[in-house]
Every structure is written in C-alpha cells, then in structure tokens.
C-alpha cells in the first residue's frame, strides 16, 4: 500500500509505504503527548500552599508544606518563593534536610514578619532555622523583620539560624529588629554571604548582625550592618574567614570572640578583615577573650580598614568579662598571636585609639602594626595608646605611637 501526497504546487508527488506511514503517525503521537504532558514546576510559591500575605495570618504550616514539596522534588534546583507583594507572618519554624536536589533556593521576594506577641515558648531557639541542607541559597530583596523591640529585655537567641549547611549562600536579604542575634551560621563550610543588610537600633541589646560559629571557609562581602552589638562576631571553631568591604555602624565592630568563656578551649585562625568602614561604633576591630580559657586566636589580619568617630578602633582585650567591671584572676588564657594591623586610617573618640590589653600569664605575641594612622576625633586632642604584655613590632608610620610594643 502506498500513499501519494503532492506539494503545494501540485507536482512531484512523494510516496509513503505503510511501514513509513505507521512510523510517522507514531512519531506525531509521541510529540503530541510530550508537548501536552504537564511540566513539573521548579518554583514552589508559598501562596500556592495556602500562605496569605496580610501580615496577620499564621503561615508557618503553609511554608512548611512548600518547603517539603521543594525539598523532595526531583527538579535540579527547586525554589521556595516568598511572593511579592505580601507580608507573611511566621511563628517559630524549622526547615530541614537533606533535600533531594544538590541545590535548593529560598527566595525572599516579599516580607516575613514575626508575631507581635510571644512566638515561642522555647526562648532559647531560633525563630527561623535551616538545618542539614547542603547547597542552600537564601536570596531576594525582601525583608525579614523580627519585631524585636518586645524581646530586647529577654535573653532569647537567634532570629535566623543556619546549621550544618555546607555550600550555603545568603544574598541580598534585609534583616531588621532581631530579638537578639540576626543571622547565625553554625557548623557549616564554604559559605558565601553577599550584599545583605542588617538594621536594629544602636541601643538594642545582644543584636549581633552576624555570628559565625564553628564554621570554615566563610566569605562575607559588601554587606551593611547596623546593630546594638557586634556587626560581625567570629566565634570558636572558625577558620578561613574573610570579611571584605562591609560597613558597620552603629554597633560594636567586628569581633573575634568572645573566646574561652567558663574556662573552655577556643580556636580561631586564618581570619582577614579588609577594606571595611566603621562609623560611630563602640569598637572597630577587636579580639576579646575571657580569663581562664585556653586555645588560640592566631593568623588574623586587619587590612585597609577605615574608622570614623570610633571609640576603640583597635583593641585586644584578654580581660573580657561580659560587661563586668573586674575579672577574677586566672592562670590561663587563650593565646593571641600572629596578629597584623596594616593600612588602617581614621579617628577615635575614646581615650586610646589603640588598646592592646594582653594577659600577664599568656602574653600576646607577633603583634604587627604597619602603616596605621588613627587620630583623635576631638579637636585639639592627641590620640594615645594603651599597651601591656604585648610583644611584636611596628613598621612604617604608626600613629599614635605604641612604645610598649616590645619584642
């Protein structure tokens, strides 16, 4: 059997035998079915799972449903979407893995807000937690608001906690009014934090912008921090941390520590803070350790940073006691060594632009000041330094002089 067909000009027929015709029909049927088949969606919009962005409805369960669907999806890079416009109220919620995909996104396009009343009976837990999710990216231009003013009198913990998440990226999100610490990264590695902003009043207690704890290979880039505590705090167990091109103020600066509380062992190494600006902060770059601890803070550099009206631009405090007026005498301390300050410029409002207060039992070693010029912000006042139990040297111009820094 043959089927003859003519082209549009009515000439030159072309023929199909039965076998070819069957093959053609099967091909057309297959393409029709493929085109008509539903495409599995890679974007999991929280609104499609029942979330309501009116700022009042509790969306915790809806967000959990969206997360579960995305986490178990076979899509290569699923996205949980917080849609815009909309303000989505969440109570305490935890998003957990591991997920099926190698990368998963949580896109904050709209806003997330904590309840105005009590949002958890467990005041030691984070409000929003991401745990055991490798390849997690949280990004977007929306805001996460912790309604923190009602909680600043309490000793509660983190607003956003990310734990055991290797390859974690955080980009662009604005964090505001945390009950305490805004963002905490715990036991994660290969972390990138880029272009975020944190804003809480300068008098809000314990509102660290970013806490890095027991984490490795962390990059913090081009982010803005305004808080009532440390802009960035780097805690024990952390190494290979780079903080670059951030702004800090108000706040307590960038801190290594506190380390060694309660006689514990602490270890921090290979940290670099560079090309950052500090405005009207309590401290600029600080290392703080508790008396009686052990371990080390070493291979740390502060390069090309600027200070504008900072009380203590450069400070090592091995007598840190969490605000207490005096510390009990201890015979051990976290060892501070191989610390470099280079290319620092700015003004100080405190009595001492440079303070190196090191332990008598375990003095600071290999402290280097290279091309550091910090003048007093007070007209007619000369900047001064305070230094004891510190060993190292100076290079090039150093203002104020640090004569007590002796090898």
UniProtKB/TrEMBL annotation:
Output the InterPro entries linked to this UniProt entry: Glyco_hydro_28, Pectin_lyas_fold, Pectin_lyase_fold/virulence
Membrane-crossing segments per the record:
20-39
Keyword Cell wall biogenesis/degradation among record annotations: yes
What is annotated as the active site? 252
Question: Known PROSITE patterns for this protein?
Answer: POLYGALACTURONASE
Q: Does the keyword Hydrolase apply?
A: yes
The family assignment reads:
Belongs to the glycosyl hydrolase 28 family.
Record protein name field:
Uncharacterized protein
